Amino acid sequence: MFKILKTEGKARRGEFSCAHGGTVQTPVFMNVGTQAAIKGGVSALDLKNVGCQIELSNTYHLHLRPGDKVVRQMGGLHKFMNWDGPILTDSGGFQVFSLASLRKIKEEGVTFASHIDGHRIFMGPEESMQIQSNLGSDIAMAFDECVENPARYEYAKASVERTLRWLQRCKVEHDRLNSLPDTVNPHQMLFGINQGATFADLRAWHMQEIAKIDCDGYAIGGLAVGEPAEIMYEMIDVVEPFAPKEKPRYLMGVGTPSNIIEAVARGVDFFDCVMPSRNGRHGKLFTWEGNVNIMNEKYITDDRPISESCSCPVCRSHSRAYLRHLFKADEVLALRLAVLHNLWFYNELMAKIREALDNGTFADFREKYSGNLEKRA
C-alpha cells in the first residue's frame, strides 16, 4: 500500500497504491472537490490535465445532497463524478468545528442542524463509516472532533479521549462494512486522525494511542485553524516521532506553498487545502515568482501570462490583461481559468518537491522557495 523510496532528513519520498488509479507518488496534494466538484467550473477531466493524483470530497455535504444512498445507487462516487483516480472522503468531523453554532456533541455522536434547510442530522462513527462506504471512496477518514483554537485544556483532553473511542468504533464498523458482499468498495482504507489542539502532551498521547489501532494511515487534524504557523510546525514535530513510520501521514487542511514545504521537511506525505481554488476565485494567483493579485490596476494592459515560468494551459493561452478583464466583467470564465492555474501550480509544486527528494536536493529547494513563495510577485 505505501512504500518509502527515499528519505532526506525527516522528509519522505514514497509511493501509495489503492483500489483506483494505480500508484500515487508522494508527497502529494489532494485537490478538494467538497461536493464532488472543484469550485470554479473545473471537471474531473480538468483535474487529470493539471496533474491531480487524488481527489477529496466531503461526507457531510454529500450526505445532505444528493444523498450518499443516491451516490451508491449511481455506482459510487468514482462513477458519479467520472473520476477514475483515488478519492479520499473527509469524515464530517470538520463540520463539528465549522458548524459549531449548529451542532451538539455527545458520546454517541453529533447532532447537526443542516446548513441548507435546518433539518436535524445525527452523525456518529458508525454513520460516518456507513456514508463513506456508500460513497465508495478509496480512503475513509475516521470521525473525530476538531476543537476550536484556542481551546481549554480540560475540554481538549476530554475531546481527544472521546475521539480515540470514536476511532475504535470506526474501525469495527469499517471492517464490518468492507466484509459485506454488496459493498461499493471492499478495499476502502481507513485513516485515523490525531487531535489535541495545541497542547503537546495531548498530541503526543493521542498519536501513541491511535497508532495502536491498525489503520491504513494517520492524519494530523485540527491545525491551520488560526494558530501561528510556528505552532503548527511545533505540533507536527511533537507528533512525528509517534506516527508509524511505515504508514502514510496526512496533514489536513494545509495549506500555503510554504506550509507544505515545511511540513514535508517534518515527515508529512499527504496534503489538502481549499486555498488554490478559493484564492483563485478571488483573483489571487500562485507563481514561482510570488503571489499575483490579478485585480491590480497595473495589469490592465499587461500582455504577459500570469507567470512566464508556468506552462499551464492558462499561461500558454491568455494574458494578465485578459484575465483581469474577465474578473472585472464578472465572467464565469475568470474563475475557471484562475482555479486551473492555481491547481496546476500546486501539483507542479509537489512534483518539484518529489524531484528534489529524488535528487537529494530537498534542503536546497526548501531554502530557495519556502519563504520566497509567500512574497508578492
UniProtKB/TrEMBL annotation:
Q: Which residues form a coiled coil?
A: none
Q: Name one GO molecular function term.
A: tRNA-guanosine(34) queuine transglycosylase activity
Q: What are the GO BP annotations of this UniProt entry?
A: tRNA queuosine(34) biosynthetic process
Q: Where does Zn(2+) bind?
A: C310, C312, C315, H341
Active site per database record: D90 (proton acceptor), D272 (nucleophile)
Q: Which InterPro entries match?
A: ArchSynthase1/Queuine_TRR, TGT, TGT-like_sf, tRNA_ribo_trans-like
Tell me the residue numbers annotated for binding substrate: D90, S91, G92, G93, F94, D144, Q195, G222
| Binding note for cofactor | Binds 1 zinc ion per subunit.
Q: Where is this region: RNA binding?
A: 253-259
Q: Which domain of life is it from?
A: Bacteria
Q: Which Enzyme Commission numbers does its entry carry?
A: 2.4.2.29
Cofactor(s) recorded in Swiss-Prot or TrEMBL: Zn(2+)
Keywords linked to the UniProt accession: Glycosyltransferase, Metal-binding, Queuosine biosynthesis, Transferase, tRNA processing, Zinc
Q: Which reaction does it catalyse?
A: 7-aminomethyl-7-carbaguanine + guanosine(34) in tRNA = 7-aminomethyl-7-carbaguanosine(34) in tRNA + guanine
- GO CC aspect terms: cytosol
Where does this protein act, in terms of pathway? tRNA modification; tRNA-queuosine biosynthesis
Instruction: Describe its partners and assembly state.
Output: Homodimer. Within each dimer, one monomer is responsible for RNA recognition and catalysis, while the other monomer binds to the replacement base PreQ1.
Spell out the PANTHER family in the cross-references: QUEUINE TRNA-RIBOSYLTRANSFERASE (PTHR46499)
Main role?
A: Catalyzes the base-exchange of a guanine (G) residue with the queuine precursor 7-aminomethyl-7-deazaguanine (PreQ1) at position 34 (anticodon wobble position) in tRNAs with GU(N) anticodons (tRNA-Asp, -Asn, -His and -Tyr). Catalysis occurs through a double-displacement mechanism. The nucleophile active site attacks the C1' of nucleotide 34 to detach the guanine base from the RNA, forming a covalent enzyme-RNA intermediate. The proton acceptor active site deprotonates the incoming PreQ1, allowing a nucleophilic attack on the C1' of the ribose to form the product.
Could you say which protein family the record assigns here? Answer: Belongs to the queuine tRNA-ribosyltransferase family.
- This one is known as Queuine tRNA-ribosyltransferase
